[in-house]
Amino acid sequence: MKNLLSEVLKHEVYPAMGCTEPVAVAFAAATAGSLLKGKTDSVLVRTDPGTYKNGLAVAIPNTKGEKGNLLAAAVGAVVRKPELGAELFKGLPAARLKEASALLKGGRARIEVDYARRGIYIAAEVKAGRDKALCVLEGSHKQVALLTLNGRVIIKSSRPGGKTRLPYKEALRKAKFKDLFLAAERVTPEELVYIKKGVDMNLAAAGAGLKLKKVGYYIEDLIKKGYLKRDILSGAKLSAAAATDARMAGAPVPVMSSGESGNQGVVAVLVPWIVGKAFGVPERRILKSIALSHLVNSYIKVFTGELAPICGCAVAAGVGASVAIVWQRNGADARKTALAVNTVISDIGGMLCDGAKSGCALKVASSADSAIRAAWMASNGEGITDEEGFVGRSPEETIKNISRISSLGMDKVDRIILDIMSEKRR
Predict the structure, then answer these.
(1) Judgement on whether residues 185 and 156 belong to the same structural domain of the protein
(2) What is the pTM of this model?
(3) Which of 184, 275, 302, 355 is most deeply packed, by most CB within 10 A?
(4) CATH number of residue 342's parent domain
(5) Are residues 340 and 250 in the same domain?
(6) Are residues 151 and 212 in the same domain?
């Protein structure tokens, strides 16, 4: 596919306000609700385990710190503006929030988890009077697979069950790292402007996050008090963690996502940017490296899945950022790229995902640290090789190995984590 980067930027790199999964739940409910007239009477949402887990404990923007997929569904069902996409919580009117909260208090908003589902699946059923609408998202946070009104089909995807991947995802699955390098080199001036917009957006989110006394704030506090040196490592960890702090706290600021994930966008964008600027790399080259970072992140996720039991900020965005930094310094060097990929995955490949919440900022900081360290080692010809652990003989093989561990070996782990989280909420 000639326009692989363009497809990735179109489908997976976009501004998002609030955590990705609650936004997607709200979008599904809003899409269904947009077909109805009159006041919303009820909303029922069914999701895959990953979506349920990621929306369980994360704050919703413009709701005064309220959390969860259920509120997100209610908001979407009453706001009914799917055209807002991933910025559906932007400027949420107080009256609409009150209406959504009333659905929850009255027991007229419910959520269920379908443990048999794998990959993204969100079904939102909204009722108003005698009418009932259903929207199903499958395979992507924005992909409407089914839309019905009173049982009459309005939209039905040609990809039944969401099993058939979009063409660009099929192209990613078949790609090698050399193909990703070529795709990044084909970036257009307009795409570079869009990528720079993402940098500015994520830096602004980091600024907002530093005003909160959370992970980024305390990294900065350590620097101010002389316990940490102000350098590339601490700067990247601080900025990435602070931007994530803002997102997970429900701050009404957007970030540019990557791989359909805001936190992954923070790592994939800010880490190469901050490192490149610190080393005096020309801005155009830094932006091209971020294009590569987006590609690598998306490439890895076609193997691990969109909502894996392991942290995508580590094994996908962290690897993408590390490869981008190596490219800034060494170009498309296959051996050094392999060392960077292998080293990050060997280092933090076992990082568990226990849903979106404030603690994600800690994982983002660790991913930034690992990405930079691995890139520096790789640039100097050092790193983890296939003689160690589950690392493969090539970066592609290593990625498939960690994907196998995640999807097969950790399936029960993911269910146990979800059970623990659900019990705590009850």
Answers:
(1) no
(2) 0.91
(3) 275
(4) 1.10.4100.10
(5) yes
(6) no
Identify whether residues 154 and 182 lie together within a single domain: no
CATH code of residue 30:
3.30.1330
Number of compact structural domains in the chain: 2
Per-residue H/E/C for the chain: CCCHHHHHHHHHCCEEECCHHHHHHHHHHHHHHCCCCCCCCEEEEEECHHHHHHCCCCECCCCCCCECHHHHHHHHHHHCCHHHHHHCCCCCCHHHHHHHHHHHHCCCEEEEECCCCCCCEEEEEEEECCEEEEEEEECCCCCEEEEEECCEEEEECCCHHHCCCCHHHHHHHHCCHHHHHHHHHCCCHHHHHHHHHHHHHHHHHHHHHCCCCCHHHHHHHHHHCCCCCCCHHHHHHHHHHHHHHHHHCCCCCEEECECCEHHHHHHHHHHHHHHHHHCCCCHHHHHHHHHHHHHHHHHHHHHHCCCCCECHHHHHHHHHHHHHHHHHHHCCCHHHHHHHHHHHHHHHCCCECCCCCCCHHHHHHHHHHHHHHHHHHHHCCCCCCCCCCCCCCCHHHHHHHHHHHHHHHCHHHHHHHHHHHHHHHC
List the chain pLDDT tens, one digit each, 426 residues: 568 999 999 999 999 888 889 999 999 999 999 999 999 999 999 999 989 988 888 899 999 889 999 999 999 999 999 999 888 898 899 999 999 999 999 999 999 999 888 889 999 999 999 999 999 999 888 889 999 999 999 988 755 454 556 889 999 999 999 999 999 999 999 999 999 999 999 999 999 999 999 999 999 999 999 999 999 999 999 999 999 999 999 999 999 999 999 999 999 999 999 999 999 999 999 999 999 999 999 999 999 987 788 999 999 999 999 999 999 999 999 999 999 999 999 999 999 998 889 999 999 999 999 999 999 999 999 999 999 999 999 999 999 999 999 888 887 888 898 888 888 766
45 with 187, same domain? no
